[in-house]
Amino acid sequence: MTYDFNAIRIGATLAMLTLLFGIGMGVVFGANEDAVKDYIKDGVARHAGMHDDQSESKIWRYAQRAHFHATGVGAFALGMIVLAGLSNMSRMLKMTTSVLIGIGSFYALAWLSMFLLSPSMGRDAAHEALLTKAVTSVTVGAMLLGVALLSLHLTFGFGRSRD
Question: Considering the entire predicted model, what is its pTM?
Answer without folding.
Answer: 0.94
